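Model it.
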Amino acid sequence: MSQALPFDSGAADVLATAASWKAQGKKVALATVVTTWGSSPRPQGSQLAIDDTGAFVGSVSGGCIEGAVVKEGLAAMKDGKPRLLDFGVSDEQAWDVGLACGGKVQVFVEPVE
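Modeled.
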């Protein structure tokens, strides 16, 4: 599937990498945790950048939902439309992607123009 870049990258590294990818002519999407409830693996504001090859840097969940978010990021680059994703333990998809921590997380994914 996709190749993860350094997992512990901070927000500045995520944005710097996204800017570098754009400068290289790649398409880029940015995912940001906008809301959390309960026991969430990452706080609000956590970010993940995805390039058009599926490579990504940063984290929105500590690994639980990154695969699903990368997939949506690739789709956002193709159709040019942002999307708001909801994951939680009551959501069947959340179990499929591994978000069983007891919390909920909402992630905004947008193509970077």
